[in-house]
């Protein structure tokens, strides 16, 4: 499994945990509008969970620029 | 290494791999209280704490009986985003035996929640309210140019905190819990910050001091966040990025630790702090094994880095005892041998009189700890058990899940720190009665009789996933074989000492059958743990010249497996009779009945206690739950008739 797919698999589990929904399937084009309950608090929980799971710090400047899940995956891959 | 241990709550076990499934499974169990506590009793990260907290909330709201967990209601008001603290606390509360309901005040509405009798918090009338105000919410603007202004600002901040506290108490009836302030690491003047009135460091220190003095005088509950921030380092504790992004008052990675520390205080308020520390001896209170190394061989001296590490554990235990924690011993040793260092070693800090109960025997530790608890009329959940051996820790955790058994780092230099970090003995007061408590148990280090077995030993042995490896003597193992032959004193049937040359000779002697035995299990590699030398004394008889074993693997049925191996090879060598001897020494009383226990029959007994035993083959020897590996056994030279 290449790095991007590995990240996507792990990230999907993070989404399922944060939104408490085992049925969530993420796609690169996905945005906040596509997921029920993706409000600012869950956005924050998502960021913290991503930092914990991938053992990285998401620089605060980069977070505001993120629009899609695909961009998030790229960001995670870049910091590996 | 310490930082990681503390940040990750290293004293707790890691959560099971199927944590998610076990969480979901809680909804199917009839009385899930114990299962909830068992899951919470692991080092959970924030994601896992949130998952467990959600389930606890669901169970609580559905009216499920969550006994024996006790209900507790906590209000939270304070600075910044406190949303994440709630689930961390709810899940962590289960670790301490509580079903926690959290009532969170509105964002940054500390004064409103406190002073309005109809506020959310006040109407909820919780048992306690955590007032998590940090320095940013107080009028503590730096004023290094004006000492009088500094004094006034300090006073104003303290007054504000006390006013909030008093209002909460008056309007809700809850016990208020104030927090000390954690200063940020950024200096103004540098080292001089602590000296110059009006710097932020100075102001915060003055506020904290005033809070402590007031709590001492008026008996209020104070949660020392400043100490927690110190513990992990203020540069780690304060995260500018997370404050800027989301007004998180401290780095989110410390949520599990913060929750654990608060729960210690809440548990202490409910009398649930632990009361008794049960100590292992060998390699916990001193370096080495008293039964094998003797008084001269154990390491306990000042100036010896291993000795000092263990002395630090003794020092901490003694300090705990002097503040009212009861001490007990649970050791796998002969009772008289175990007491030797306490009686005769000049460098020991702990003496027999410091212990209320002293259990040194060959039974399992869980059974001993249960007996200690009963003797002291303490609940099992009041006990803490400190042991360097992960297999022992596992056995006690399995048999008595309510005993606190800290995981320890490999380095004994960190044992004391680990025990301290686990925080089992949190106090919210310190009275004469506390000081006198240890004496009340009359430290006469008494021995308690054991009754029925606690826990399922066979299940424990299976869970160890042991693999035993049998090999004849070889060059690679020779040095270690020789070492064991010369240093084993307790589990040693004949205590025959051989040089390396003699060991090599036995290896090559056609009339000798030799075994070096290794044991690996789920918690680690025990290395070489047994050595056997058999000599052919007639065409059909092997006499067991040497049989020794490491005491570390007692109670695992290794002896049976070794005998089974001997019987297996005896058949190949046309041996139909095994003869074993027991030569008594001052140290090996524990193996006096080794041969009868294995099914041998007595053939001779001398006045000095020496005995000889035989086992006629073939014989069925029951095995034990372990995998067997054999290496390098040559084809036996058949003593069968030709033709």
Number of domains of chain B: 3
The top-level CATH class of chain A is Mainly Alpha
The CATH architecture of chain A would be: Orthogonal Bundle
Name of the CATH class of the largest domain in chain B:
Alpha Beta
CATH superfamily of the largest domain in chain B: SGNH hydrolase
What is the H/E string of chain A?
Answer: HHHH
How many helical elements of chain A?
A: 4
Low-confidence segments of chain B: none
- Tell me, what's the shape of chain B? elongated
Annotated CATH architecture of the largest domain in chain B: 3-Layer(aba) Sandwich
User: Could you tell me the mean pLDDT of chain A?
Assistant: 88
- Helical content band of chain B: 40-55%
Quick one: biggest sheet of chain A? none
- Overall pLDDT of chain B: 94
Largest sheet strand order of chain B: 15-16-14-13-12-11-10-17
Describe the structure.
The complex is a heterodimer of chains A (80) and B (643). Chain A has 80 residues and is mainly α. Chain A has helices at residues 3-18, 40-53, 60-65, 69-79. In chain A, helix 1 crosses helix 2 and helix 1 (3-18) packs across helix 4 (69-79). Chain A starts with a helix and ends with a helix. Chain B is of the alpha/beta class. Chain B folds into 3 domains: 70-269, Rossmann fold (3-Layer(aba) Sandwich); 276-455, Rossmann fold, CATH 3.40.50; 463-630, 3-Layer(aba) Sandwich (Aminopeptidase). In chain B, the strands form 3 sheets. Chain B has an 8-stranded mixed sheet with strand order 15-16-14-13-12-11-10-17, sandwiched between helices. A 5-stranded parallel sheet of chain B has the order 2-1-3-4-5, with helices on both faces. In chain B, helix 9 (200-218) links the parallel strand 4 (175-179) and strand 5. In chain B, helix 5 packs across helix 13. Chain B is elongated and about 100 Å long. At the A-B interface, helix 1 and helix 2 of A face helix 4 and helix 12 of B.
């Amino acid at each position: 499994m290449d790095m991007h797919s590995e990240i996507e698999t792990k990230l999907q589990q993070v989404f399922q945990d944060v939104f408490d929904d085992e049925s969530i399937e993420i796609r690169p084009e996905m945005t906040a509008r596509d997921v029920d309950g993706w409000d600012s608090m869950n956005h924050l929980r998502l960021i913290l969970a991503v930092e914990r799971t991938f053992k990285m710090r998401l620089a605060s400047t980069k977070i505001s620029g993120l629009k899609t899940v695909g961009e998030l995956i790229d960001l995670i891959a870049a910091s590996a | 290494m310490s930082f990681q241990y503390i940040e990750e709550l290293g004293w707790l076990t890691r959560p099971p791999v199927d944590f998610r499934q076990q969480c979901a499974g809680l909804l199917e169990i009839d009385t899930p209280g114990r299962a909830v506590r068992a899951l919470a009793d692991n080092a959970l990260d924030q994601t896992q704490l949130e998952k467990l907290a959600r389930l606890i909330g669901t169970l609580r709201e559905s009216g499920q009986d969550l006994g024996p967990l006790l209900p507790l209601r906590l209000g939270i008001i304070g600075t910044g985003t406190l949303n994440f603290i709630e689930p961390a606390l709810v899940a962590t509360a289960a670790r301490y035996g509580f079903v926690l309901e959290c009532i969170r005040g509105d964002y940054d509405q500390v004064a409103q929640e406190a002073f309005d009798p109809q506020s959310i918090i006040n109407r909820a009338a919780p048992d306690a309210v955590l007032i998590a105000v940090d320095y940013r919410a107080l009028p503590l603007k730096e004023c290094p140019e004006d000492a009088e202004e500094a004094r006034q600002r300090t006073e104003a901040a303290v007054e504000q905190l006390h006013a909030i506290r008093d209002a909460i108490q008056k309007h809700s009836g809850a016990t208020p819990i104030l927090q000390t302030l954690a200063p940020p690491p950024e200096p103004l003047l540098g080292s001089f910050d602590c000296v110059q009135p009006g710097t932020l460091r100075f102001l915060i220190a003055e506020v904290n001091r005033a809070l402590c003095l007031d709590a001492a005088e008026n008996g209020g509950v104070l949660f020392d966040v400043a100490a927690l921030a110190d513990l992990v380092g203020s540069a780690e504790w304060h995260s500018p990025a997370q404050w800027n992004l989301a007004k998180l008052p401290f780095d989110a990675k410390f949520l599990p630790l913060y929750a654990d520390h608060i729960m210690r205080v809440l548990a202490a308020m409910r009398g649930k702090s632990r009361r008794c520390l049960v100590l292992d001896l060998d390699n916990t209170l001193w370096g080495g094994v008293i039964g094998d190394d003797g008084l001269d061989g154990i390491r306990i001296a000042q100036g010896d880095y291993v000795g000092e590490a263990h002395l630090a554990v003794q020092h901490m235990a003694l300090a705990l005892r002097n503040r009212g924690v009861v001490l007990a011993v649970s050791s796998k040793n002969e009772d008289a041998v175990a007491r030797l260092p306490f009686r005769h070693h000049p460098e020991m800090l702990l003496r027999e009189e410091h212990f209320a109960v002293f259990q040194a025997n060959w039974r399992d530790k869980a059974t001993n700890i249960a007996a200690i608890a009963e003797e002291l009329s303490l609940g099992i959940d009041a006990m803490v058990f400190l042991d360097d051996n992960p297999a022992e820790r596992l056995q006690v955790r399995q048999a008595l899940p309510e005993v606190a058994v800290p995981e320890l780092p490999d380095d004994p230099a960190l044992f004391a720190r680990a025990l301290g970090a686990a925080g089992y003995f949190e106090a919210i007061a310190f009275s004469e009665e506390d000081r006198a408590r240890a004496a009340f148990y009359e430290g006469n280090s008494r021995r308690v009789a054991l009754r029925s077995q606690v826990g399922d030993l066979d299940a424990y042995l299976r869970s160890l996933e042991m693999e035993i490896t049998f090999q004849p003597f070889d060059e690679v193992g020779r040095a270690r074989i020789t070492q064991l032959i010369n240093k084993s004193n307790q589990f040693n049937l004949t205590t025959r000492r051989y040089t390396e040359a003699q060991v090599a000779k036995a290896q090559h002697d056609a009339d000798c059958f030799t075994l070096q035995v290794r044991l690996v299990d789920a918690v680690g590699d025990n290395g070489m743990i047994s050595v056997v030398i058999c000599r052919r004394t007639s065409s059909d008889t092997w006499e067991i010249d040497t049989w020794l074993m490491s005491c570390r693997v007692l109670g695992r049925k290794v002896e049976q497996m070794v005998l089974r191996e001997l019987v297996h090879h005896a058949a190949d060598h046309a041996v139909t009779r095994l003869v074993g001897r027991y030569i008594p020494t001052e140290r090996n009383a524990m193996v006096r009945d080794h041969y009868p226990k294995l099914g041998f029959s007595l053939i001779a007994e001398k006045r000095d206690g020496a005995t000889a035993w035989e086992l006629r083959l073939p014989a069925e020897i029951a095995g034990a739950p372990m995998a067997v590996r054999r290496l390098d056994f040559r084809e036996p030279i058949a003593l069968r008739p030709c033709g």
